[in-house]
Amino acid sequence: MKMLPSSLMNKHWKWGIFILLALTILLLPLPAQSAQASEKYIQIQASSYEYNPGVVRVKPGERVTLELTSTDVTHGIYIDGYNLEVIAEPGQTQTLSFVADQTGTFRLRCSVTCGALHPFMTGKLQVGTNALLWKSIAIAALGIAVVIWTVRT
Amino acid sequence: MHEVLPLNAEHSTRWILIGLALGLLLAIFLVRSFGSGQAIEVHAKMPEQGGWTPSDLAATAGQPLHLRLTSDDVLHGFAIGQSDQPPVDVEPGKMTELTLNFDQPGKYTYYCTRWCGPNHWRMRGTIEVQPDLNKPGAAASQSSQPEAEPLFIQMGVDIDGQPHTDRIPPDRPNARRGQALDTSLPEKYLAEEYYRTHSPVEVWESLRNEAFTQSYSDQQVWDLVAWIWRQGTSPAKLADGQMLFAQNCAACHGEMGAGDGVMAEAVAAEYASSGHGPAGPIDFTDPHRNLATSPVIQQGKIIRGGMGTGMPYWGPIFTEEQIWALVDYLWTFQFEY
Predict the structure, then answer these.
(1) Range of the domain at B209
(2) Which residues of chain B does A93 touch, with a Cβ-Cβ cutoff of 8 Å?
(3) Which of A29, B194, B248, B271 is deepest in the core (most CB within 10 A)?
């Protein structure tokens, strides 16, 4: 069996490390969050054409109660992915309770035709940390490191 | 074989044409008898853009009125005042079919049930229901039931005063404590027309001068007042009133009646800009004003509205029982039941 030149062998070995690192980043689960069932109460004010707060962050498995108050006309919230809906009239605060059993980022959209800019009345429900974002950043950083290393050698 | 085919084709063409002609006749017949040819299309727009079009509808008692409702902008609702007809939503891009039946002739008000904009409550229209002249006795039934005038008009009370009292109970009057005193109240105080036409302060002063209250503290007399008010209503009426308040009043008067609803600031600003002094929705938790107000004044305000203050008039919308249920509920912001 013929030995490969040591320089080439070295190069392959380093590529192997990079691939291994990339796989680790992709497959390694993020630090697990406390899985115990906790309660989260969030008040959301809806006005034409925004939600305040616009981004709702909850932990996976949490029991979430959204309290929707409308300040001008009838508004609603529809949570994509969860397929839940709540509608609030001004003066009639309504609540929506659910268990955040799906992780990821979900679009909140107004479910009541409330005016000209109604299609743009959206918000976000974020369940758990945004794993995709952090993994993408890590992979991108790794890629930059590889490029720098390749250029220098 | 080749000669037969054109004959067959001619035959089938003939049958197809006959079928088409018959189908057309059938379609015309079906549309005329069951279609929406009779229906009136009503378009809903925000009040600033014109409200309901057409806003005045006509119908005949005993005959169905078909409506096709749609919205040209945002979500609206459709309901008829003083009727049991459940409200329906009127959505853009959708036709809501509705068939109404009026037993009694008269003038009905229909109104928007979804908050569609700051002037939502102005979005109203009328349905003029004529008596069915083909029916014997139909014209007579119209005049057989003259409507009684509401209490505030019968009494001629001034509903535009600024009631105020400085005689404030040390503690929130509590009907249960009043009941626990186990006083046999004179009949006069428990009569409906008595408590509805007097303010709590007047009742308190009258009770205070009675011989049987001489051993009571001022607070105990207040508790008796709350007990009198509680006996004038029932949990069912209070629940009705609470629902009506939440749907129609809370947006301005606040969900807890404190005059701090989500619309309160806008209403106050509009009133001020119209050259009047500062005024906003009434705070029902303020004892200075409310303990000097009698239920009949509140009835009048609800029926007639605020005349320029932004308070709508509900006379054509609510029934008399609904208005009294609402008035009863308003007192839960002052009294503990």
Answers:
(1) 152-333
(2) 255
(3) B248
